[in-house]
Structures
1.
Amino acid sequence: MSPENAHKAAAADHPILDLIQNRWSPRAFDANTPVLDSDVHIMLEAARWAPSSNNAQPWRYVYGRRGSAGFDRIRATLKESNVIWAENAGVLAIVAARLTFDDGRLNPHAEYDTGQSVAFLVLQGTALGLWLHQMAGFDAGKAVETLGIPEGFVPLTAVAVGHRTDHLTLPTDRLRERELAPRKRRPIPNIAAEGTWSAALNM
Amino acid sequence: MSPENAHKAAAADHPILDLIQNRWSPRAFDANTPVLDSDVHIMLEAARWAPSSNNAQPWRYVYGRRGSAGFDRIRATLKESNVIWAENAGVLAIVAARLTFDDGRLNPHAEYDTGQSVAFLVLQGTALGLWLHQMAGFDAGKAVETLGIPEGFVPLTAVAVGHRTDHLTLPTDRLRERELAPRKRRPIPNIAAEGTWSAALNM
């Protein structure tokens, strides 16, 4: 099916990759269509090949498929406002970063590089026809406890992965409205400047 | 031309996007081939559309084209071991993150989300036939000073963008060897676990 909200391609001012133009973070996941094991592995393979400072590869993923104990553990870490839609995803994951290099020194790029890996995973998932929605709204302490995340690793985000369905399946008016809202971004002059910093970057 | 080191596609265990499989971070940049203005704008357009926590879009880019004062300012922030190859790139950039939300609260995902934006930029550049190499080795304090980066923003990485050339153009044996070395990554069981944390993730 093609949900009504399939029109949310980025209003891009320059010709960018379809994958980037058409990716967005939905909430209306289809509880009846699982995510294939092979697709999970392809996404993780893409996540592996991200660049990182000193090739430290600080990214770590713990995931669970809908119906499994792992999925339920991750679901239980989510804020209630996320549970109400994310529980329909096919896969839930917690993304963590390793904070040090092998020699024990602090890795100042651990979070930045973990973001790069997740971006690769997201675009690979998009290429497979899947949809991903990252969440800051989860209880990191609870994730540490219930998933057994050891010292030296910090959970950064939760991710829902699955197939989209109609926005009308969402449980509240507000969620249904947000699902149809156009995507907005700062114009290029507000994120990039040539030669030196520009006041337009301060906002 | 097709440099000798064009064989560095990732030894991927699963079928991933060509863009991800073939991207790597070269040092042998071709000083004679500039990066088109239009390609810079397309890369920044891709960088705009990354996802971010609360749609805060914390990423900021300052860039300069080879031969410009901006390029020279960024080059002067690089570690000497990077200058010797990165000065041949067509564009140098400093990537910074805004540390707070609009309301002044700390944005705990500023670095992670900036990493996502750069990953989008890197894959878009790759799609345009360009090559990108991120560097942790630069003087962030000097970048703040010479580029006029204000309080509340922190420089995270430098990026070289350009066209590749033969590894033999690199100035040292060590750089020439590294340019031909195969790309290595942790196997999937060392970055991902199903259901709960696994000891294989600790290494």
2.
Amino acid sequence: MSDFRLATRCARLKSSAIRQILKVTAGPDIISFAGGLPAPELFPLQDIGRATEEVLREDGASAMQYGPTEGYLPLREWVCAHLSATVKLQASPDCVLITQGSQQGLDLVAKVLLDPGDRVLVETPSYVGALQAFGSYEAELVGIPSDENGMRTEELRRVLESSAPKPKFLYLIPNFHNPTGTSLSAARRTEIVDLAATHGVPLVEDDPYDQMRYSGEALPALGALPGAHDRLYLGTASKILCPGLRIAWLVSPDRALYERLVSAKQASDLHTSSFSQRLVWRYVRQPGVFGAHIERLRAAYGRRRDAMLGALERHLPDGCRWTRPDGGLFIWVEVPPRIDTLELLTAAMAQKVAFVPGEPFWVDHAPRNTLRLNFSNANEERIEEGVRRLAVAVKCGM
Amino acid sequence: MSDFRLATRCARLKSSAIRQILKVTAGPDIISFAGGLPAPELFPLQDIGRATEEVLREDGASAMQYGPTEGYLPLREWVCAHLSATVKLQASPDCVLITQGSQQGLDLVAKVLLDPGDRVLVETPSYVGALQAFGSYEAELVGIPSDENGMRTEELRRVLESSAPKPKFLYLIPNFHNPTGTSLSAARRTEIVDLAATHGVPLVEDDPYDQMRYSGEALPALGALPGAHDRLYLGTASKILCPGLRIAWLVSPDRALYERLVSAKQASDLHTSSFSQRLVWRYVRQPGVFGAHIERLRAAYGRRRDAMLGALERHLPDGCRWTRPDGGLFIWVEVPPRIDTLELLTAAMAQKVAFVPGEPFWVDHAPRNTLRLNFSNANEERIEEGVRRLAVAVKCGM
């Protein structure tokens, strides 16, 4: 088996572990905190329907035709306005590439930047889909530990100043991290930008959750801090509208790199759906609709987060710790070290509650006693009951 | 520059040559035979609109949610029925992977099967998007010459029996080839299947045009001939419905290979649009609608093909030759050897007519005097006038 295929298989094993869990937990009597799904009852189907009718009526033939690899220009223009208004990132449409979900953005970045054996710095734990994408190009993943303020900069400095070959890029999720839910502090954002610039390491900033904030103050993107030439930024419509349309955006201020990404995208799938791109654009330009929807999401998910934090406090036994995210979809839990969360899952399933064991999110030296809980896909009542059941399983394992 | 990036750049140069041509030829006073676009006036917008309403009304939340990497099961079931009824390919839904256009299918095949330096056999000339996809994984492309009956089997035999390393797969477009418009004869299908089996070389059969037949008899897919274990088949909704939704299918009877393709797809973009997949399924299941649409397409494109063949006969000077396709979207033209079609394009643009020079479709030893004409994207009147203008340019160059 070639290294490439070995790498692919290892990545697959990790993700397929999660896929298996998601399949088993699909039953209606199971309360699942395992997936990362938005709440389907909050999808704005009426407004999406109106946007769809408008696309077909006013621009139907173009919506069904081949389109440019870079993406639909009005949508790219909206992305620029949106990024400027939210994360203070100033980008021009000719730096914006529309991708088939952020997962494709990660794949394209890896395809263009990585040769086998290249080192990539990632937070540990980190998003399993990113680890899988980078691993499929045979990258060597180097984990930088993180805490409640995100990636630990003294560890990053140590790795960057070591004699090891220079990493090809540094990947991080600054807001409401998947899986930990934590956010990178303002001081560390500046430090990381400076360290990356000093060592000439490009930043890849994956920011799917920035609009899903329920408390605390918003911070600018790392890409919005001065000197952003070699910083890539990934955003998506998956959390702020819906994932099923597979619309996301990758911003590259470096023009030469942008052209290479477009070229890789063209070889990968020619372009993203002309229809989906126009649909998202017609949706977001309806006056007042998008803003009101974001407010509705924040209110609902904020209540669910609070319900889960309250339930964890009420039900989990001493010796458990968890993060207190200001936003996003996830809470990260540490149970006492003697509990292996892969085994805990079996006990939890017997109680009809599910979660994702933490192991696949780690690059190396995975502790056995971590797990990820999702709070966006269940209402407050089911969250309360689900955490109660989880606590029963944890107490049995202690 | 690494080999990988060099390969990417070479592939990009080829495709970007075509992209530049397509951009220049977008003016309304230019008659363009350059693209490969379906006729937008034939998109069944009303029926698509009805299918869209039905998806949103009956299955809206699932259409907006994350979905399985393999694709939407009812669509995969329809694909199996469709392939059985049309190209006689018997497949089960668990061998069908829904992809983001066939271009993604080609990319996934390359990603899973190719290591740098691996040899891939292709018809020459061949589809430039496939050459680009395989090239982006640093494959060595080996061209097998073709004639009016498709790939020349004596040349294929010679290459397979040579002492060179065994190719990783053989890629071919059996029906109404892009760019040549020719089809692989029944005798050669059997011969190629036998040769591939003897030498243990998997077949990758790219079949986007099989339903676009305007004359002659349909033949079964190569994958439908006995012993199809290691034959991959790619089909698409881009030509029979519309390309803008980016819905296609990749069939792999080999279960282990299928799992690797699913894994690669998951790392590439998680899954294809839940909405687009449901939309295509709801469209094709409307009673009588899809069949009538195919008949309408065949009639209209058949008239356009006849108009172009007639106009070529009337206007092109002696010393020109062209293919007479039974279907598809393209006619392949050879002008006298002293004419370089890259230079001819400049003269043709002065006459306000455009085409694609043949050079990017060749793997090596590209003759300078070939070009591709598309007949699906202009009506009969414009085809007549466009070919008249082309003939003026050709005569100037002689």
